[in-house]
């Protein structure tokens, strides 16, 4: 009897898998950083990641991922996709490093930055880094009073007994989950205008990518995608239909118009389970996208829904060894 080797070989080839990394801040060395309290990997560390990952994985692009979804990919080993969230000014240098190594990344943009307004969490990050926790909370509590919001929304600050990381977590959770959509944005913009924008007239260029830089990144071959309009948690119960359209549908149209490209991928801000729609929920609300990313730390396979691909977010404390071991663990846990 003749053995059908091709049948078994094709089954092996069709088992395609990929990992993805999600970067935020990619900073210069601390001695050169004008905002050294902003946490992120350094540009030097980032390039070390790139070199290490090129040796170990098949680096893929968004175009390769689209073939993966259609089960038309032919990876010789596990794929690796580089993604970046928040449309940060840092990403222009990261894009140049990728381009130097022949890699095409995917950059997820909150479209408010194209209207000269910073994204929500980046206002918090830069204000805390430059002015400290106490100043931020004082400004916040004054605005809670000014806008006649509930006293329960005020944040208590005890200068004699402060746990900095606990306070930062409370600040972030307040804007992500406790304040409603409109008041969260209104308060953050008010704080931004009274602090960063007043002290740094070029604050937008310091924090975020410009349209010109995004255009150059597209010319390098990189892809861009939607990261909502203002970078909010789009928890299923939070947004009205109008707010959903502003945060999810409008950004796609803006990016396609401004950069003359097709945009069909979405990265969920924050990306935890409580911040995302399930695949079926997203499809009920819109059919504008083919791909959506969370920050679930998993190995992605062709059996995984393309609306819930996972990524790992390298931390400022991660060494290159840590990143390598975490990715190995993600692969091993899937077996």
Could you explain how this protein is built, in words?
With 335 residues, the chain is α/β, with parallel strands linked by helices. The chain has two domains: 239 residues, Glycoside hydrolase/deacetylase (TIM Barrel, Alpha-Beta Barrel), CATH 3.20.20; 80 residues. It is 47% helix and 11% strand. It contains 13 helices and ten strands. The strands form three sheets. Strands 1, 4, 5, 6, 7 and 10 form a six-stranded mixed beta sheet that branches. Strands 2-3 form a two-stranded parallel sheet. Helix 5 crosses helix 7. It is globular. 35% of the residues are buried.
The number of domains is 2
In whole angstroms, the N-to-C terminal distance is 33 Å
> What structural category do the secondary elements indicate?
alpha/beta
Count helical runs: 13
The CATH architecture name of the largest domain reads Alpha-Beta Barrel
Over the alpha carbons, how many angstroms does the gyration radius reach? 21 Å
Point out poorly predicted stretches: 1-13
The backbone outline, from C-alpha atoms, is: globular
Largest sheet: 6 strands, mixed
Q: Enter the CATH topology name of the largest domain.
A: TIM Barrel
| Average predicted confidence as pLDDT | 93
Secondary structure: number of strands: 10
Range of helix content: 40-55%
From N to C, what is the helix and strand string?
Answer: HEEEHEHEHEHHHHHHEHEHEEH
- Strand proportion, as a percent range, falls in 5-15%
CATH classification class of the largest domain: Alpha Beta
CATH H-level homologous superfamily name of the largest domain = Glycoside hydrolase/deacetylase
């Amino acid at each position: 009897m003749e053995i059908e080797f091709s049948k078994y070989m094709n089954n092996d080839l069709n088992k395609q898998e990929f990992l993805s990394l999600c970067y935020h801040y990619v900073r210069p060395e601390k001695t050169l950083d004008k905002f050294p309290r902003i946490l992120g990997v350094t540009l030097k560390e980032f390039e070390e990641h790139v070199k290490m990952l090129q040796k170990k994985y098949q680096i893929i692009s968004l175009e390769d991922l689209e073939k993966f979804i259609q089960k038309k990919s032919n990876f010789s080993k596990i794929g690796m996709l580089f993604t970046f969230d928040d449309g940060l000014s840092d990403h222009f240098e990261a894009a140049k490093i990728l381009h130097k190594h022949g890699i095409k990344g995917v950059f997820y943009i909150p479209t408010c930055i194209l209207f000269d307004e910073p994204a929500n969490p980046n206002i918090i990050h830069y204000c805390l880094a430059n002015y400290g926790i106490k100043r931020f909370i004082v400004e916040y509590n004054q605005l809670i009073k000014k806008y006649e919001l509930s006293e329960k929304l005020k944040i208590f600050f005890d200068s004699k007994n402060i746990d900095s990381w606990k306070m930062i977590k409370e600040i972030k959770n307040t804007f992500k989950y406790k304040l409603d959509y409109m008041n969260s944005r209104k308060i953050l913009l008010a704080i931004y205008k009274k602090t960063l924008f007043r002290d740094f007239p070029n604050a937008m260029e310091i924090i975020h990518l410009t349209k010109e830089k995004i255009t150059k990144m597209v010319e390098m071959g990189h892809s861009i995608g939607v990261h909502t309009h203002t970078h909010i948690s789009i928890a299923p119960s939070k947004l009205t239909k109008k707010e959903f359209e502003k945060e999810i549908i409008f950004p796609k149209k803006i990016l396609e118009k401004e950069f003359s490209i097709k945009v069909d991928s979405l990265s969920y801000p924050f990306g935890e389970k409580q911040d995302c729609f399930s695949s079926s929920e997203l499809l009920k609300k819109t059919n504008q996208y083919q791909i959506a990313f969370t920050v679930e730390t998993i190995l992605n396979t062709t059996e995984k829904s393309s609306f819930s691909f996972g990524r790992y977010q390298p931390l400022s404390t991660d060494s290159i060894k840590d990143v390598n071991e975490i990715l190995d663990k993600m692969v091993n846990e899937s077996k």
